[in-house]
Amino acid sequence: MLALVIFLLSNRLPVSVGFWPLDVAVSLPFGAVVLAGLLLGFVVGLLAHLPKRISASRRANRAEKRVAELEGKLAATPSNTIR
Q1: How does pLDDT run across 33-45, given as a tens digit for each residue?
Q2: Domain spans in the chain, listed from the N-terminal domain onward
């Protein structure tokens, strides 16, 4: 957190940021522009990874249920001891 605050305070010079389809330009501090870009990249990466994470979680839940079912069947069967 301290490094972030130092970075933002060290990069307060304004830069012009334009938005391509619109003919709009805004002057923002350079540190804020970099921070916004990092946050946007993080959110996009998280959203790109989310479907795989949800799928893996569902597969794990199904596997756990199957293991519990098989363990229940194994416990219910009489055990044959091997000599």
Answers
A1: 999 999 999 999 9
A2: 2-17+24-75
